[in-house]
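To illustrate the input format used throughout this study, we show a single complete record. The first block contains the structure-token representation of the backbone; no residue identities are included at this stage. The design step must infer an amino acid for every position from geometry alone.
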């Protein structure tokens, strides 16, 4: 596995490198402190498995630049690593082509959940990435969906249904879920229907509420 870490903070790159080396025996780590350096390394180094990319760094100033960066490297999955917890930033990053979004406040353990998911072609979205200040009175705090966070009622969900539920809790429409996961909208509808049946709920809102309640129960148990 070859992972490129692109961040303008050397200490952060060092921390991620240590976490990766603890998780994988065969990992090769490349580092870049600017977007141009990362782009050059990615283009000149065959076989890069994944890029962990800071959203704000020299040569990369937000979503518009992120989209261009990803389009230049269509064969390499890019996971954004950012300190921003804003729902709009997370959604825009995924819509720009990022295969995942990791909060910088997460510990290194998150990588063992995110990397296999992304490398298998799935999408990782942090359910806990919305702060109370950003939620309206009618919103709820979306749950984290890392392995082990589900109450037993959720174990019957397939990996793809889990991905659909993640985006559903963030307020994505069927069309947006389809675009984000590279699926047909009709397929998303089938997954949503299956999710509701398995959770014993009647609509999308109830499914999201059930997911949130399950996470809270599991957190209390843990």
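Output of the design step:
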């Amino acid at each position: 596995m070859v992972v490129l870490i692109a961040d303008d903070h050397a200490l952060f790159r060092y921390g991620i490198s240590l976490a990766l080396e603890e998780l994988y025996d065969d990992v090769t780590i490349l580092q870049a402190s600017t977007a141009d350096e990362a782009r050059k390394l990615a283009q000149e180094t065959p076989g890069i498995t994944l890029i962990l990319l800071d959203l704000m760094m020299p040569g990369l100033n937000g979503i518009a630049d992120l989209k261009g960066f990803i389009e230049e490297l269509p064969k390499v999955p890019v996971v954004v690593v950012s300190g921003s917890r804003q729902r709009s930033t997370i959604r825009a990053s995924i819509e720009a082509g990022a295969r995942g979004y990791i909060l910088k406040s997460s510990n290194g353990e998150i990588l063992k959940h995110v990397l296999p998911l992304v490398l298998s072609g799935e999408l990782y979205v942090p359910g806990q990435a919305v702060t109370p200040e950003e939620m309206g009175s009618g919103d709820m705090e979306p749950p984290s969906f890392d392995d082990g966070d589900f109450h037993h009622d959720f174990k019957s969900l397939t990996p793809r249904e889990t991905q659909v539920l993640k985006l559903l809790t963030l307020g994505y429409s069927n069309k947006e879920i389809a675009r984000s996961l590279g699926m047909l909208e009709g397929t998303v509808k089938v997954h949503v229907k299956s999710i509701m049946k398995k959770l014993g709920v009647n609509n999308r809102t109830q499914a999201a509420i059930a997911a949130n309640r399950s996470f809270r129960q599991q957190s209390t148990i843990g």
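Structural context for interpreting the output: The radius of gyration is 18 Å. DSSP finds nine helices and seven strands in the chain.
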